Amino acid sequence: MPFTAAAASGTQRSLSSSRLHLRDSVVTLPTSSTSSTTTTAAPSIASRSLSASPPDSPLSGGAPEVIGDKLLGHVRTNGFERPFGRDQVISWLGHGISAVCFYVAAIWLMVLDDTPRTHSIRSLTSVALFIHIPALVLLLMAWISCERIDPEESLPNGWFGIKLGGKRWMKARYCAVCRKTVPGLDHHCTWLQTCIGVSNYAQFFTIACAGTVQFICQALYASFSLLWLHIPVDAAGQQLTEVKILLLVCLFISVPCTITYFVLLGFHTLLFFLGYGTYDWMLRRRKRQRELAKAKSNAAKSNGAETTPGDGAASMPSPQSHSSSFGSPSDFTGADPSIAIGQMTSL
């Protein structure tokens, strides 16, 4: 009997190991023109059938666990799902601290008596608040909507009636970070900790626009207040040191955020005119890099052949023809869906 129990236990472990190897082979199957559909479908099935996984799942680097024929993997629903990412928390703190410093300093200056000495800075504060408040409200609305939506689902009526159409948004791709298939996947944004697809790209682009306006307004207001208009004095004749500190903190955060938002908005505006998304842009960029590497390799081989002594004249290298760095949209329909998409950011 002890021998029989041990044999049964060994057989059970062997079967579990076989199922694990089978599941691993499906997930990591190399992509080819005939197997790209299989590779894409396997993570999609796992993501739909399982809603959560322990932290020691194989995809997270820990010990594997198999239940039946399903390989467990945590499927991230939206941006507000825990655990929060490092970049996500940094973005919350950056927006929140800079906005608080801006409003406290602005209100502090607005309550000063309207004298010839304070008239200029009060007027500047009024203009800054008039621009900043609508931008911040729009940013918060888009941010909350973008974070709360499950990108795997679709919005039939769009966001405030904004609907995205075209081939770019009809193609579903698999995100290796969220471990699910997202319709119209553009990229995975680490600052929002969610996928950006057809259901929340309008909100994402609104965040880029409103964030650019917010931080430009904060940076210009803090700069003009500190360097041009000078901080006025209070009734006791003392300079408002607290206001200076608030404006310096606001300026310190706003300048790098302005540059980041400006680059982000410019990049996605360029993609809009090009007619494709971040995912396709990265595929085309990688294709161009491979073509350049191949061209350099061919040139090196040709130069080596020219310098090799022979009984005849040195052979001239044949001209190499290469396709455009952008190619055609059909070049990427069979691309590996797991190619770097889990590490793509919103820039």
Description:
- It is a single chain.
- The protein has 347 residues and is mainly alpha-helical.
- Among the domains are: 39-75, no CATH class; 86-279, no CATH class.
- The chain is 55% helix and 5% strand.
- The strands form three sheets. Strands 1-2 form a two-stranded antiparallel sheet.
- A hairpin with a 4-residue loop joins β3 (172-175) and β4.
- α3 packs antiparallel against α4 and α4 (119-148) packs antiparallel against α6 (201-228).
- The longest helix has 34 residues, at 241-274.
- The protein is globular and about 80 Å long.
- It starts with a helix and ends in a 40-residue tail after the last helix.
Question: Outline of this structure?
Answer:
By secondary structure, the chain is mainly alpha-helical. The protein has helices spanning 2-27, 36-49, 86-110, 119-148, 167-170, 201-228, 241-274, 278-307; strands at residues 66-67, 70-71, 172-175, 180-183, 187-189, 194-196.
